[in-house]
Amino acid sequence: MIAELVAELGPLWHERHQDKLASRPRKRAVGAGAKHRLVFVDRLLAALVHLRHGATHDVLACWFDVDRSIITRAIGEVRPLLAERGRTVSPGVRLRTLTEVVDHLGASGKTGIIDGTEIRVRRPAAGRKDRDKFISGKSKQNAVKTMVLTDADGRMLFCSPTRPGSCADPTHARQLGLVGLLANGPAMEILADAGYQGLGAQTGGRVITPPHRKFKQNAPDWYEEMHERQRKAHSSRRIRVEHGIAHLTRCF
Question: Which pTM was predicted?
Answer without folding.
Answer: 0.73
